[in-house]
Design goal:
The structure holds 2 protein chains of 2 kinds. Chain A is built from 12 helices and 8 strands. Chain A has helices at residues 7-23, 28-31, 38-53, 72-84, 92-106, 109-120, 232-244, 249-266, 272-300, 308-330, 340-349, 359-370, and strands spanning 126-129, 145-149, 152-160, 170-176, 184-190, 196-200, 211-221, 225-226. In chain A, strands 1-4-5-8 form a 4-stranded mixed β-sheet, with helices on one face. A 4-stranded antiparallel β-sheet of chain A has the order 2-3-7-6, with no helix packed on it. In chain A, a hairpin with a 2-residue loop joins strand 2 (145-149) and strand 3. The longest helix of chain A has 29 residues, at 272-300. Chain A is globular and about 70 Å long. Chain B is built from 10 helices and 8 strands. Chain B has a 3-stranded mixed β-sheet with strand order 1-3-4, covered by helices on one side. In chain B, strands 2-6-5 form a 3-stranded antiparallel β-sheet, with no helix packed on it. In chain B, strands 7-8 form a two-stranded antiparallel ribbon. Chain B is mainly alpha-helical. Chain B has a domain at 159-298: Butyryl-CoA Dehydrogenase, subunit A, domain 3 (Up-down Bundle). Classes of the chains: A alpha+beta, B mainly alpha.
Amino acid sequence: MEFDWNQEQKEFRATVREFLATHLPDNWENIAHGPGSVAQSDFSRQFCGQLADAGLLVPHWPERWGGRDADAWSAFILAEEMWAAGEPRGGQYMNVNWIGPTLMRFGSEAQQERYITPMAQGQTIWCQGFSEPESGSDLASLRTKAEKQGDQFCINGQKIWTSYAGEAETCFLLARTGAGKNGISIFLVPMDTPGIDVVEIPSLIGEGDIHEVFFENVMVPASAMLGAEGQAWDIVRKALSLERVGIPRFALASRVLHRTVAKLKQLDRFHRGAEDQAARAQAACEAARLFSYEIIDQRQKGITAGPEASVARVATVNAERSVAEFVVEHLPETLAGGDPLLLAHHQRGIVAGIASGAAEIQLNLVATQLLQLPREPR
Amino acid sequence: MDFALNSDQITLNSELDKLASKYATSPTEFRGFVLEDKQLNLELEQGGFFEAAEIPELGPVSAAMMVERLARLPYTAEVGLSMLVGPQLNGDWPRPFAVVENGRPGRFVADAATLIILDGDKVGVVSATPDAVEAVDSLFAYPMGRLNKSVVYTPLSEGEAANVRKWLRIALAAEAAGLLQAALDAATEHLTLRKQFGRPLGSFQAIQHRMAECTVLARGVRLLAIKAAWTGDAGDAAVAALHAQESATRVVYDLHQFMGAMGMTLEFPLHLWTYRLKALLPELNGRGGQAQAVAEHCFKESGNKKEHVNV
């Protein structure tokens, strides 16, 4: 057992921090409203290009696709530092974490050539067309339809809660080509295809993050399908296992916690009540960190994460919540014109238990798969 | 960063498992609070388990894992202090150890050979004499004892005292991790077997979610305790002990609730773990004490322009 970083990992983290220190503008924290905002999306195109030039965008990808086959720890160290900095990669973190690797595994040669290189250069934003008005946690009930018409598919339906849709060039879209779970297929759809309409949803979590996306007679070639017809469920399950501990939310939560404590100390308001709550939040952040490291350790060893990934997700939600509650109780001015990074964290913390599978679904998985409690009859 | 055990640690755990398996179930006729078997203590001594942590390839991480493993047993023995705190004391102090905190009754005090005295800010270590201690009946499922007269001790230096407190926290967290897991396992079994409304209680989502939350807490305590044993860091120790006491309050309540009336009986052994957890709750000044320690050790840099703490 080893709870320290090796020299190479320490150096890699230092390199990433140095890069952030030299490439984030002085007013970065005023820009960092959230990965989906227009400002952050615009900034990400410039920043991810620079990251790519420095070999820091996709180090864990194969050499063929612009990486250097770095290990799972490097990818996670990178993710920790980026998220703690307010995610200057914007929505492109998704490309790096799971869309790119999924295309490498399941994409046709033409799809790989078309899409992976721009991702590796940090020049393209994707969105994830999964949820629908009637299909959230029950994703398999989705209704958006793709009907075969000759060598094309005609897509009709609606997606919702789609992050980055306003800025994305391409959608990783799930649509129904048949009945049931095995009747869902994935299409890689350029967002400028006629018939796609994107409407931003004003939200609590900040500007530009969630959208409705309408598909009306959207024609895509059959070659836009990823993998085989009906293979979506299998592909998405594998892809989301990367996403479940893809965002090291505890890293920003921890940074926000320490910054809040520092401010309270300056204001002479770090009294016993605040101390108690900060300590609990610290424990929650550290538990989430260790659970996540446990999963990355498995990933590093080629083990596919089981329900332990859900434990990590739940612990991460606990951490986000503890920090957000600590901040609002002891530094309420954060929500009224306060420190923009703390404000952005508070706005986005609410997402932790909802995005990438609701926390309640994770609890179901822990109960039935880890504790082996009997399933609820349906 | 590597969560895999080395071959020596795997061998040790497997040997301990073998030993522990003999004590894995409580006697069916048992209806008491304290379940001890002197043979367990003897076997641990004879097997050299108390010295194992001093072998460099094993270290305090192994000690923490042994404490956690043994705490899962229905039988209790003084292992936490012997394995994790004893090796930190200057001088050759014999086991078993016990803590007397501000004059209150403590676990294993009546049978201890060495007493660690926590007296306000001061910490002392003294040999226990039979005339100075007495057993106390209690609801806690540990053998409890107390001092029946004041003892004279020389306070440890500030550094030594801080070190003792740190390893007491790690021992508490490791012990709590095992107790939490065993209690969860016992409740899981009940929830799987017990049927109401024609289906196992454990199939109701209202219970599943709370059980899953308890699991996340218990597993977190284990990881934090093991990490703290590995780093020997005062902040990590405080975080682990705080999370242990926090989690215990929640888990003890929930598990008894899930057991229904069966959880009120001495027939079902849940109390062997939950009422031990209750004994750990007030230790080291309770949650408030751990929170202060977390604030002291984890937030000391906050405000000094060092934001990336503990990354």
